[in-house]
Design brief:
heterodimer; A: 334 residues; mainly alpha; 12 helices; B: six-stranded mixed sheet; 8 helices
Chain lengths: 334, 294
Amino acid sequence: MIWLTWRQFRVQAWAAAAFAVVVAAALAATGPHLFDLYRSSGLADCTADCRDLADSFMLQADKGLTNVLYAVGTIGLFALPAVVGVFWGAPLVARELETGTHRLVWNQTVSRRRWILTKLIGVGLATVVTAAVLSAVVTWWAAPFDVANDGRLAPALFTGRGVVPIGYAALGFAAGVLIGMLLRRAVTAMAVTLLAVALIQLAVPFLIREHLVTPVTASVAFDPRQIQSMGISSDNSITVRMAAPVQGAWELSNVTVRPDGEQYRGPVDPARCGREAGPRTCNEYLGTLNLRQEVTYIPADRFWALQWREFGLLVVVAGLLSAFSLWWVQRKVA
Amino acid sequence: MTDAVVTTTGLTKRYGRRTALSDCTLDIPAGHVVGLVGPNGAGKSTLLQLTCGLLTPTAGAIEVLGETPHTGSPRIGFVAQDTPVYGHLTVADHLRFGAHLNPGWDKALAEERIAELGLDPAQRAGKLSGGQRAQLALTLAIAKRPELLLLDEPVAALDPLARREFLQGLMAYAAEHGTSVVMSSHLVADLERVCDYLIVLVGSRVRVHGDVEELLGTHHRLTGPRRDPGTLGAGRHVVQASHTDVQSTLVVRSTAPVDDPSWASDRLDLEDLVLAYMTAEAGADGRDRVLEKR
């Protein structure tokens, strides 16, 4: 069964290996220069107030081939679960059911259990290895950019760094196999899998991730110098947006509150924060109100804890889907 | 030989509300080439897939070679309808996975057959003609050296020449190795040449089954003055009756010869016999039916 699985999958396997090797080689070739810039810009050794150093590093590094590679690496890791699910997972069983070849192979001396297990483990392993290699080189290579971009806990980066890409790829593959098995049509299954993977990649970061580790809540004195933006309406209500008080964290909420703990929305004194008054008088005025800034965030040092928990969750779900596929193919498919 | 290769009791398979096979009780003796004949949708594929374990019965029981059938058995070879093969794999690839997946694989037999058929081992199976594809599927099924070989409409898509070659190859193999074969078709002519045992399946039910010689010996076409078929007497089962104003034609199953001088008695050939059972079923709803006859 291993031979047949390999024979059916070898073209895709070679394509994946070639892609991974090309990406790894390109990143390995450009990596040393990138890390030289990272050190020479001073960003590598910076511990506080690094915005200017980060900007100067980005100005030097984020151009030409490096820029392209960054895009390829990031988009590649985001798209990998969908690609794997659609092209490896969905047709794996669906194509056999569609063309009737399951009736051929199941009447060799091989149980359905061994047939599906070999396919799941073989192609699943290829999925995991591809994702692991790509994520490892991209995570290593993009580290200076991630520092310059204020950390990699931001939802947009977190999904494409560390170990979670492996979990997403495994889940995409397992979902694809099951969807294909249930729908029995390769093309339909591929479309549905694409949709399912996209939903997973949206639902996990925005609905589930923040519950995986305990966030930190901090309350700091209102500092008018940290105001990022504010908007004043004609009824004198105000919304104040403050800069993040901690570096590299994933901010879940950031509100300005009154001394009694309610969110501050004004009204403001029109003489000091009105059309005529300048922003400076308004800032000074806000500084006299005894406001506080309350921030809930996941600090940068929880990055790996969050990575492993999310990875664990994804792998468990992928395992459950595969177990269901295993049961279904033995009981319900003919 | 008296051992049964397939024994079913009250075997029933339903898909939702549709009954594909109902209350089928059969004993198929070993060492025969069995023809399973019936119109399209009669339940032939269902019976064969129950026999190889691809399907599980809704009710009743089936025993094949003394055990409950399951897929992946080394003892049963199955050629599915439309003879599926892996289109992107070559002929040689098929033989290789056959060798990998079957402990009892007869490499010499497989290679010999492929050479005899003139198939190019490097050819992709998707590029083969219908006849060549059927031959490849048959080669895979017999090279695992099964005790029972099941074929579901193997020649339905083939032209007459390919049909004859396929059936000849099958016959040669079955005669040489003594393998029991069950083969379905909706055309009696295909089975007539090769089968020595017949099962007629119409409308999800088994209408008649038995040794071909015996079936031919016990079925008679009687022609005589018009009369009620009920007056024939015991031991005689009227399969089909048709009447004109003055004359009745009956197809009768009877172990004893019909010696009533008012009847003219004829033998039937296999095709007439099968058609009588099919027509009897069609006649039940009061309409004539065009039956496939080659």
